[in-house]
Amino acid sequence: MIPSKKRKLNKKEEEESEEEERIIFESESEEETKNKEESDEEEEEETIRFESESEEEKEEEEYLWRLSNIERAIKSFSSHSIPEHLHGREEKESEITNYIKERIKTQTSGSMYISGKPGTGKTATIQKIRKDLSLSKVRKCKQFFLNCMELKDKRQIYKEIGKTLELEDVERLDSDVISSALRKRNHMIIIFLDEIDQLMSTKSKSEQQIVFDIFGWTTIPNSHLVVVGIANALDMTEHIPLLDYIKCQPYLIHFQGYEADQISRIIKERLDSSAFTLVEDNAITLASRCIANNSSDVRVVLSILRKAVEDLKTKFEETRKISTVGVMLMNQICTQFLGDPQVNQIKSRTIHEKILLASLCQNQDRKEVVGSQVKKQYSGLCSQFSIPENNVSEICSQLDGTLLDVIGKPSAIFDKKKIRINFGTQNVVEALKG
Asked: Across 159-314, where does the E strand assignment appear?
């Protein structure tokens, strides 16, 4: 079969064919252009979405970073947080450390009595020294720390020390058993007793005997014992005359209150962990001066700064905008904490000083009370709350010239002296709230 020949297109048909092809080509080009534009738009939307998400992620990261800085600052103002450096206590730290290390080096016994008002850095200094001793390469020695305020029974001190000496039947321990055990020791033991003045009162000779026993153990030959007593009372050991009899004279160290510039350095050091400013310098200066002019109790300023930064955190969480603690906010918080200067002064006193002041509130219309009556009222309040009594005469001597005046010759017995009240009953009530 012979194939048919393709018919040759005339000019008109050729033009129509070319036009058709052109239309098809243009249509395809338009579709491609449209598809490309849609693709570009999708890519642009994806880019915008990615950039937006990245920006949100960055903002969230910055928010969390700033929040962690604020929280770290709050934690640093905890009174339980012991910094690497104790401003204003360098000399005391060095003096105590050198005394202890010398005793360890020479394997000789000794005793030390550290005194100072609450919040002057006594316990913080001792805790840092204990930590440094544990890390240093000193000769083998064992440490024991006890806050005597935690003892329900004062004679429980023998039991706690017995545990440290690894003695058997610690429930029945007495001073003689511990003395015998100390004679057999061949390495050093350091006993740190905080609030040791809580072990004494005038009511019981046996309680005075406890403190005598503890310091007296250091005079036992080869006892390898160092006793460090920490208390608020300036002259507690002077009221145990038997210590002189056995030639036990504790090394005395007294902590003075902090000055404004020392308080300021303490605050700034604790803020060093923050990567940006949280508290303005003039606000720090204000807080430092307020505390230095009141109780000099560094624990109070730590509480004030903690509250200020906590307020800053709350505001930051609500607004996500960072701000700083300025003079106005600091002044408000200082007022909240300090209020009436006398109220703040009462707040800074020891538990037994507060009990004495509270007991004197019973004499609302009398400005002077005889010593024997003060003893009776103080004893009654201690008994009511099951708190072991302390030496009333010593407590009054700590308050003398401030919240009360002790009137009478120094040689006169306390019962015959008069106590003049220099405080308002309402201020005591306000200070003891909570």
From this structure: 188-194, 225-231, 251-255
φ/ψ of 58, rounded to 5, equals -65, -45
d(CA 297, CA 301): 7
Pairing between β-strand 418-421 and β-strand 368-370 as defined by DSSP bridges: antiparallel
User: What interhelical angle do 122-135 and 90-106 show, nearest 10?
Assistant: 40
Nearest to 337 by CA among 269, 255, 431: 431
Residue 137: CB atoms within 10 Å = 4
Q: In what order do the strands lie in the sheet with 188-194?
A: 141-147, 188-194, 225-231, 110-116, 251-255
C-alpha span between 205 and 8 (Å, rounded): 139
- pTM greater than the 0.70 cutoff: no
Burial class (CB in 10 A: 0-12, 13-18, 19+), 385: exposed
The fraction of the chain above a pLDDT of 90, given in percent, is 30
At position 349, the amino acid (one-letter code) is: R
Q: Which residue has the tokens 């003893």?
A: 375
Instruction: For residue 146, give the DSSP letter.
Output: E
Q: Higher confidence at residue 4 or residue 74? A: 74
Whose tokens are 């969480």? That residue is 317
Token pair recorded at residue 51: 């950039």
Residue pair 201/155 in contact by the 8 Å Cβ criterion: no
Taking only the tens place, the pLDDT of each residue in 363-413 is 867 778 999 999 999 999 999 988 888 899 989 988 888 888 899 888 889
Q: How do residues 163-196 score in pLDDT, each as one tens digit? A: 888 888 777 788 888 888 888 877 889 999 998 8
What three-state secondary structure class fits 277? Answer: coil
Q: Average pLDDT in the 299-310 region?
A: 92
